[in-house]
Write a structure and sequence with these properties.
The protein has 350 residues and is α/β, with parallel strands linked by helices. It is 27% helix and 19% strand. β1, α1 and β2 form a beta-alpha-beta unit. The protein is globular and about 65 Å long. Bound molecules: S-adenosylmethionine. The site of S-adenosylmethionine has 20 residues, from β3, β5 and α10.
Amino acid sequence: MSVEPTYGPLVDGHGRRVTYVRISVTDRCNLRCVYCMPEEQKFRPRPHLMTREEIARAAGVLAAFGVAKVRLTGGEPTTRPDLVGIVADLSAIGFPGGIALSTNGVLFPRMARDLLAAGLTRVNISLDAAEAEHFRRLARRDHFRPVTEAIELALSLPFESVKLNSVVIRGFNDDQLLPLAEMTRDRALAVRFIEFMPFGDNAWSQGEWIGWEELRGRLESAGYELTPVGKGPVSGPADEFRVSSPDPSSGGALRCEHRGTVGFIAPVSDRFCDTCNRMRLTQDGFLKGCLFGHGDVDLLRPMRQGASDAELASLVRRAAEVKEHRHPMAVGMSRATLPLHGRNMSEVGG
Ligand code: SAM
């Protein structure tokens, strides 16, 4: 089922059509990834978070603008006890581009089948290291095993796609580049390497950042041959590549095609602002045009004050109108001049 776009297409102030919304359902997380949130992160009081019904209502208004694809993120969405119900609600609204989930995987095995049955179509699992000790240093929690189980389980279920997201930080986990890429050899997994972004109060430095071209070069130096995969109508921000590499079972004499793909997500090198089709809804109900954006429009307070759907629709239109053309790094801002907006990544929904 899909909703007729009763409000017409949602077009931002720069002429780009918005077809994709990322909804953060919580700011809470069961990991403390060093690049994402501090150990002592303070969480919003639960009454400040959107309820299941409020999420469904906001999603329904966005669907009525022809927004076709939705992703649930956080914080860690699987820490919400009503996540399966939220997916079922979105499924009933109808998103023809699919309902996706970004998760760290720790709790995913417990609910994977229920999420699938409720209508979840795609899963992205974050994993920044292929080895347990590296994982613990990055995530500051010892949950490597359930995450690897989550990946294998997701691959065994009929999801449309299973992707792995890895943030690469020089001197911290860049030695994991090849072990992570190797996971594509025998698995139908899309492994995507994400450029480390300065955000909130994370400890980002230019020296720790590695651009996607260097990452690609390192894989090629290791014998990987990368062939670009064309972007589809609902492709995300990654540049994806099919991979062939020397086959270890032939001593490297023969090459083998990997079952999965490798991709790069390059927000700092600015690979996608021009074609950005997304908006974000924070767990406390603010609609944002850009991860780094400032023109947030509050949908939750009006909803709680009795706003009609038509009133919510005009707030959605306003948020689209003020959507930033490019994010600050894409216009050459350094860490020192980057405007801070008081939220860490986990509070926006990365
Ligand atoms: N907990 C879920 C997960 O782990 O996928 C969803 C939320 S998490 C904030 C979403 C994505 O943002 C993850 O893939 C994470 O690696 C990425 N992320 C967080 N901080 C980042 C940063 N500073 N730079 C680049 N990516 C980041």
